[in-house]
Design goal:
single chain; 8-stranded mixed beta sheet
């Protein structure tokens, strides 16, 4: 079966390789023409995933029409801040019923839409029925080394999700099914903001005690916003919630943690971005998360302090100290207590 993978970064390439190894014909869209040529000639993405051999059944192109021609599925893996632009270029070559799997983690700046909604709107669809989202703890470099990995796959229709599960599943990669589109996407996006804070703590020379506070309180903030947006609280204690949060805040391959670390060491955001080849989604997500917290009137101190550090010039050390001054009160958030009370009343 032909699957079109839109996005030739490290994660898109890793997923494309996995699908090709599973026996599918893969057409990979990359923005750079010279990179497409290099992938086809050398069977390696030397720019974003060097040293990894790609199957000959994986062919790359910068021609969107050619990539989508004859495809039965589309896997969408581009940075969130260019998602709408790329989707607009795809629309003329897609049927309304084409199933879309999004592996993009982020929240659109301005509209504050989750990626499933951006896809629905940009492709002119009335519903998100044929749209699924894949998110969870997964570094591209470890996936191509076939390290055991499990992520969440969310879709409104279970049978639709189960078909996607079969496309990806093998001995080392598993998809856990969910119907919580909102929760799975929020977990995948917001953990990047908390990872910036965790990296900042590393850059300032703080230890594991401090990072543990940030991860635990960060999860509480994600849960609070998730409940306000009608997500399932259980989602945040699974792969796309706690699992992804732990990985991104502590893993050596985490771009967001690394950006936070550089900020903690005194570099400016501009200096860091100029030296980066790949996108750290948390930078864009911080702006959206800050706006969502205001929209839903949810208290998110970590998001607020990261926003002030990135965009208002606040000292990283002062941000951490101010956060410590806010650590008080009950450990269980009021919103969680309300959900627990409602479930108890129902029983």
């Amino acid at each position: 079966m032909k699957i079109a993978v839109i996005g030739g970064g490290s994660w898109g390439t890793a997923l494309a390789q996995l699908l090709a190894k599973n026996g599918h014909q893969i057409s990979l869209w990359v923005y750079e023409k010279d990179l497409a040529v290099a992938i086809n000639e050398q069977h390696e993405n030397t720019q974003y995933l060097p040293g990894v051999s790609l199957p000959e059944s994986l062919q790359a192109s910068s021609d969107m029409k050619a990539v989508l021609a004859g495809a039965k599925w589309v896997l969408f893996v581009v940075p969130s801040h260019v998602a709408r632009t790329v989707l607009s270029s795809m629309r003329p070559f897609l049927e309304d019923t084409m199933p879309i799997i999004s592996a993009t983690k982020g929240i659109e700046t301005g509209t504050l839409m989750l990626m499933s909604e951006v896809i629905r709107e940009a492709l002119g669809r009335k519903t998100t029925e044929r749209i699924a989202v894949l998110s969870g703890p997964s570094f591209a470099k470890e996936l191509v080394l076939e390290h055991p990995t499990a992520v969440s796959l969310a879709a409104e229709d279970y049978r639709f999700a189960a078909r996607i599960q079969k496309l990806f599943a093998n001995d080392y990669f598993k998809l856990l099914l969910s119907s919580d589109l909102v929760g799975v996407q929020l977990g995948g996006a917001l953990k990047n903001v908390v990872a910036l804070a965790a990296g900042g703590s590393d850059g300032l020379g703080f230890g594991f005690n401090t990072k543990a506070i940030l991860i635990a309180r960060g999860l509480s903030e994600i849960v609070r916003l998730g409940l306000a947006m009608r997500a399932d609280i259980n989602t945040f204690y699974g792969q796309s919630g706690m699992g992804d949060l732990f990985l991104t805040c502590s893993g050596a391959y985490s771009r967001n943690r690394r950006v936070g670390e550089e900020i903690g060491k005194g570099k400016t955001l501009k200096e860091i971005q100029e030296g980066m080849q790949m996108v750290a989604e948390g930078i864009y997500t911080t702006q959206s998360a800050y706006a969502l917290a205001k929209k839903y009137k949810v208290n998110m101190p970590i998001v607020t302090e990261i926003y002030r550090t990135l965009f208002e010039g606040k000292s990283p050390r002062q941000a951490v100290l101010d956060l410590m001054n806010l650590v008080r009160g009950d450990e269980t958030p009021l919103e969680v207590k309300q959900v627990m009370g409602e479930k108890k009343a129902q029983n």
